[in-house]
Amino acid sequence: MPSQRQRNRQPPPPHRRLRRELVGGAGGAWATTKPPERTANHMLGLLRRAAVASDAASAPAASLRQFQNAYHRSNERLFPCRDQEVSYGLNWAIAGRGVVVKDKVFHNLETSELQKGGAAYTERLSGIPLHVRGNVISGIPDVSRAQFAKLLKLVTFHLSSISSLYVQDGAVGSSVECDAKVRVISDNPSAVLLLSNILWKTPDRSISHDTCPLTIYVASSISANVRNSLGFGSQYANGFAAADIERSSLILCGKAFADSAMLKGALSALTAPVLSARGGLRFPGWLQSFGGSAVLLFAPVDVIKSLKLQDVLVSTDSGVVVSSKGSNVLFATKAREPNLFTRPTQVIIVSSDSTYALPAVSKLSPGQAAYHFLAGYCDGKFIPAYSKDPSPLDPIALANSLFSYLKEDNTPTYLINAKSSGKYIDGKEFMRLIEVLLSNNLPDRKSEDIRVGELKGKYKSFLSNKFGKYLPKEFSF
Length: 477
Description:
By secondary structure, the protein is an alpha/beta fold. It has helices spanning 4-9, 37-53, 59-74, 84-96, 111-116, 145-160, 189-198, 224-229, 260-277, 301-307, 366-375, 395-409, 427-438, 450-467, and strands at residues 20-23, 29-32, 104-107, 130-133, 164-172, 180-186, 214-219, 239-244, 249-254, 281-283, 286-290, 293-298, 320-322, 327-329, 346-351, 361-364, 377-378, 381-382, 413-417, 419-420, 423-424.
């Protein structure tokens, strides 16, 4: 009888021997011969027991149960795609998101590899409909729990039928100290190419070590019957997107992946709870760097474009995360390597008023800064918290966070009026005003006149009607 050591040295049985073949060169996908029936059934049995043991209401468990029958009908196999450890981990992770790997997985391909696989930069779109479940800012269509669950079932079933899946990992937030990890599961390499230019790169296996990664499902070739089954009309011909903040999931159907503005707004909303839980204050603003120090800027997007400030900002997209470690931007634009800036040394709130009720430059207390930030005044209109994007964070909560931050850090805060003689000032004049306030050489504020009183009344009327008794007493004009 062979000893225990001799038994250990014996080769594994045939059904455990996996032939690996590299597809697409270094960094590409690995494929293996399909394991026999009992091995696949063993894996599915483990998945089934794991799903039953978990909370019946959880999305991963429900998705696993939904797709086990489809798996048996298609008679496909689960198999690893790189070395045994990595491949099984990746396939199990994808299965945990409701998608069963049919054939190949292309994981974290470089741009050149994606292009060799047929990826191309598609025409940019705008105005793709987005439905968000769990946002508190009005103006964004909601999606019910049942609708999202139905859509998720259809999309994951579609992705499970695709021969080649593209999985790309990234992050929202340019600092590893405070970011939100994102995994893309796509049927289209072009979608991965675009999304990889929006997301920051992350170290290998960072997703597997993250406690709450966001999942983006891209179903570009899904049938139009999906749109019809959800009751969506002809305006969804180019595609649509649906996000569930509670599930940390975003679904992109059709050509929705080509609308980068919509994508960034959805990702900003979905990652806000994660960043907050990790000690980050996520603000709808911009960072400006001055000799090693950072300035946090709040302004409507239209004002940023009118002042032509894109070239002097760290990122051309709204979204800043401030933590105890420093500050960083949400989306990759100019620099391809994640970067952590210092905590803002100044905060600037930009309004636009042609009545001369607001001076060119004025210094604000923390309560005044939170008040103007909450109102988001711009040419007679109000944009609460300077954001039109969906968000699970109440504007009052954001304003309170800003108030606490400014008060605790004693951060100097200023208000700049972007209008002069009824027109927007140019970028050079704006930068001159910043230099004035940074030197603390501010002009004396004129005494109040009737125009200031009228503007105060507009602020008070809007904020009282919008937030009522929830408006903190510390906030003032």
